[in-house]
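Technical annex, item 7. During the second reporting period the consortium partners agreed on a shared format for inverse folding records so that results from different sites could be compared directly. Each record opens with the tokenized structure and is followed by the designed sequence. A conforming record, contributed by the partner at site C, is shown below for reference.
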């Protein structure tokens, strides 16, 4: 959300300042802010995707662990 706000905010400021200050803001500072916003947004998407990929093996491992526990309980000799 922060990346999206930074990107949109940078584009709005370009339209508000159309003089020499606006040109400087547009060419230097706002491009950096915009790229930062895009990078943050991309980082969030990457993190979400990696969490999704991590979740599947975790669930498979938990299922396998539970199956092993059941097998160990059923194969133990009674005392």
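Designed sequence (site C submission):
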């Amino acid at each position: 959300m922060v990346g999206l706000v930074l990107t949109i905010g940078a584009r709005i400021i370009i339209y508000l300042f159309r003089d020499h200050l606006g040109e400087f803001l547009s060419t230097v500072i706002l491009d950096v802010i915009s790229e930062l916003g895009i990078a943050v947004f991309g980082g969030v998407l990457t993190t979400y995707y990696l969490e999704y990929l991590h979740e599947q093996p975790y669930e498979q491992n938990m299922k396998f662990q539970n199956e092993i526990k059941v097998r160990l309980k059923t194969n133990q000799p009674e005392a």
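The mean pLDDT is 78. The longest helix spans residues 20-75. All partners now use this format for quarterly exchanges.
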